[in-house]
Write a structure and sequence with these properties.
By secondary structure, this protein is mainly α. It has helices spanning 2-39, 47-56, 61-85, 87-96, 98-110, 124-133, 138-165. The protein is elongated, with a radius of gyration of 17 Å. The mean pLDDT is 82.
Length: 166
């Protein structure tokens, strides 16, 4: 049963990567920003794939950085805001799911510092939700929650730029 689920997951991820690339081809930087926004929610999108696609299409690295960072930060703040506004239903949902429990555990153990891990796949988006639920200070949210997301794009684009010139 696990092999079948794994095969389906791999096939779904391959289709998503193709779809992400097509979105960037058709909608340009706006498509990149939208994918980055959706990737910052609990939807299974990869903004990194969109960044690579945009760079391969010849968009300016600075524009790619700005659109991806703004889109992803807006998505992260949407998670934070939903956690803030919908505390009780969000807590109930987080407690029912493994990734939600993991995010709650991290948040209770490390406080606002856990937002430094909000850029990470799978656990990062629930951490932003938990940040809203637990009403972490704006300094942690902006500095760590958004700062690490922005830094991720700078590192990714920088590394891709280094590999292109060598």
């Amino acid at each position: 049963m696990e092999a079948t689920f794994h095969d389906a997951l791999v096939a779904t991820q391959a289709l998503m990567i193709m779809d992400i690339h097509i979105w960037v081809v058709h909608y340009g930087l706006f498509g990149l920003a939208l994918i980055a926004f959706l990737a910052a929610t609990v939807l299974p999108f990869s903004s990194e794939v969109a960044v690579v696609a945009a760079l391969q299409l010849g968009f300016s690295p600075v524009a790619v950085f700005l659109y991806a960072a703004v889109g992803n930060c807006l998505g992260a703040m949407t998670n934070y805001g939903l956690g803030w506004l919908l505390t009780k239903p969000t807590l109930k949902r987080l407690r029912r799911q493994r990734w939600g429990l993991r995010a709650l555990t991290w948040a209770r153990r490390y406080g606002g510092w856990c937002l430094a891990a909000s850029w990470m796949p799978l656990v990062g988006d629930p951490i932003m939700l938990v940040g809203g639920v637990l009403r972490f200070h704006a300094g942690y949210t902006i500095g760590l929650g958004l700062g690490t997301r922005i830094a991720r794009y700078a590192v990714l684009i920088g590394l891709l730029g280094l590999t292109d010139t060598q």
